[in-house]
Amino acid sequence: MHIHILGICGTFMGGLALIARELGHTVSGSDQNVYPPMSTQLAEQGIQLMQGYSADNLQFKPDLVVIGNAMSRGNPEVEAVLNQGLKYTSGPQWLAEYVLQDKWVLAVAGTHGKTTTSSMLAWILEHQGFNPGFLIGGIPMNFGVSARSGESDFFVIEADEYDSAFFDKRSKFVHYRPRTAILNNLEFDHADIFEDLAAIKRQFHHLIRTIPSEGLIICPEADKNIQDTLAMGCWTPVQQIAIDQDTTWQAQLLEQDGSQFSVSFNQQVQGQVEWQLTGLHNVYNALAAIAAARHIGILPGDAITALKKFKNVKRRMEVIANIKGVTIYDDFAHHPTAIKMTLEGLRKHVGAEKIIAVLEPRSNTMRMGIHRKTLAESLALAERVIIYQPENLGWDLSELKDYADNIQLCSSIDDIISELAREVQPNSHFLLMSNGGFGGIYQRLLNEL
After folding, report:
1. In the predicted model, is pLDDT for residue 236 greater than 90?
2. Which of 27, 79, 185, 338 lies 20 to 30 Å (CA to CA) from residue 250?
3. Whole-angstrom distance, CA of residue 249 vs CA of residue 269
4. Averaged pLDDT for residues 78-100
5. Sign of the torsion angle spanned by Cα atoms 444, 431, 118, 6
6. Residues with Cβ < 8 Å from 247, sequence gap 6 or more?
7. d(C-alpha 94, C-alpha 47), whole Å
């Protein structure tokens, strides 16, 4: 079968393309932004990439067109698909029909931490010889690819609450029908498609409705929004996780930065995790992954052993350089809570050393000006914050200065690089945060320094 994918360079659709190619299909795709690392990953697998959207991209009459959720009516290639009567579907629906049928699906949902937790869980299964399939919205460094079909009955998937396609406004995760489900957390996000928090809770409850009574739900005890959603109706056993609280799964911090902690199940210590990751959010992620692995028969002690060898995910607090005493990090920031948790982990890890946070507010929620006050407050632990304000942002970032006095605005990448060059000193930390390419700042900064 020849499958053509619209929006192929997104992390989800790119991963889907890799799986389709692995299953023996001929795969091609188009995207407005064809750039590494996804373009490189796809080209290496023999997948034809087309720059831009055009009816000409469909001249070969593909057997099936998979349309990404970033596509909308008016897109010339979408219009050509409809006008030519080509067979089409959404990415989540294709996965459900061609990949996830008859699999034990382990799904990781939540506003934050999906990519990291999915990567931890897939690595635990891999370390124990399960050879799972997976589709993750990032590149786990233990694997080097974001997706594969696997050679077992188990499939780990990052379960996104974003909508499926212009013709299917349900959240992606309702297609996956997991047997094991992690609900990491639940906050208001994706303001471009969800009217309010209640709308997101409804979608999460649709997911809960699909989980079998012999399945398992894993969630943090302290997340009120998840508890409220479960109270809407739950037919599946629930195991709760917490730090320093008496729950089914408990972590006790041995280092305050989260780099070392013990794991207990039903008040019985299972072992200690010692790793390079920091932050309480990653402790929660680890607990959830260990609990999910136990559900398919992996002993917690073995899962802990695997996590000691976990290498994290690209662009999740990834150290990209150490230059002149400055450590430079690349982090996929998209929401104030995630930013705050990342900075808290870094602060506990580096102590009083200087942190300069550099942010591109690129997610739809941040571009719409949602969470203005909490965004400013989330950056409080950095001595200095530089925020990029492009011309087309849509709101004045200077409003953030009403809530914080450590914020500086820059209207160009060159200005940001100049500011950072003046801050170079030993034992400093530059934290670059964006869920996009950030104007190529990463290599440009390294070249400057």
Report:
1. yes
2. 338
3. 10
4. 97
5. negative
6. 221, 240, 241
7. 18
Is CATH 3.50.50.60 correct for 100-307?
Answer: no
Short-list 181, 1, 205, CA closest to 108: 181
**Residue 220 is encoded by which pair of tokens?**
């943090």
Query: 318-448: which CATH architecture?
Result: Alpha-Beta Complex (3.90)
* Banded pLDDT at 364 (limits 50, 70, 90): low
Task: Supply the pLDDT for residue 392.
Answer: 74
Annotated binding site: 110-116
2-89 and 318-448: identical CATH topology: no
**Which SS3 state, helix, strand or coil, does residue 243 take?**
strand
Domain boundaries, the chain: 2-89, 100-307, 318-448
Lowest mean pLDDT among 256-265, 361-370, 410-419: 361-370
Contacts of residue 172, defined as CB under 8 A and 6 or more positions apart, other chains included, come to 12, 69, 91, 92, 159, 160, 161, 162, 163, 164
**Model pLDDT, residue 189:** 67
Asked if 155 and 103 touch (Cβ cutoff 8 Å), the reply is yes
Say if residue 75's pLDDT is above 80: yes
- CB-based contact 96:107 (threshold 8 Å): no
CATH 3.40.50.720 is held by the domain 2-89 = yes
Radius of gyration of the chain (CA): 22
Question: What is the reported pLDDT for 194?
Answer: 65
Among the listed residues 19, 22, 60, the one whose alpha carbon sits nearest the alpha carbon of residue 30:
60
* Close Cβ partners of 303 (under 8 Å, ≥ 6 residues apart): 124, 128, 289, 290, 293, 294
Q: Which helix (H) or strand (E) holds 230?
A: helix 224-231
Give 155-211 pLDDT, tens digit per residue: 999 999 889 999 999 999 999 999 999 999 888 665 567 678 888 999 999 999 999
Binding residues for ATP: 110-116
Q: Which of 288, 280, 299, 264 is nearest to 181 (CA)?
A: 288
Which neighbouring-strand residues pair with 28? Answer: 4, 48
Distance CA 55, CA 307 (A): 47
Quote the tokens at residue 47: 């997948």
Q: What percent of the chain has pLDDT over 70?
A: 96
